[in-house]
Amino acid sequence: MNIRLDAIDRNILAELQADASTSLDEIARRVGASKTPVWNRIRKMREAGIIKGQTTLLDPEALGLEACFFVLIRTSEHDAGWLDRFLNAVKSRAEVMEAHRLAGDIDYILKVRVASARAYDDFYRALISEVSIYNVTSTLSMEEIKNTTALPILEAE
After folding, report:
1. Percent of the chain scoring above 90 in pLDDT
2. pTM of the full predicted structure?
3. Distance CA 108, CA 106 (A)
């Protein structure tokens, strides 16, 4: 299902991205509409797959996950068996926050959250025991400057 988003829809999405626990009454007030039409719009955006779900954001440092590593991976293997093993290894590790396949010299990049450099080394050793990797470069994030889950909601062209 493909729906066109108008200004009210985009405002509703912005409110939900800012805090999905905001009451329907408050969202309706903020976007200048009444409660039932706002609920119907949210329902339609869910049905269309625009709204995929709701979640709670946690503070990694408050949970002792103070180290964030970006892991650049190059592989010399590109067969289906290797890819299946790699995807299973990455998807099964809770430490992997994001994983992307890239164009260019680097094949994959992972964002990994762990408690310490030692915990990262444990993660690394477990990963390479499951799948052969040609080259790995790990970089420690010294400071998180921006982190958001909110997507830019642009007007249709």
Report:
1. 93
2. 0.87
3. 6
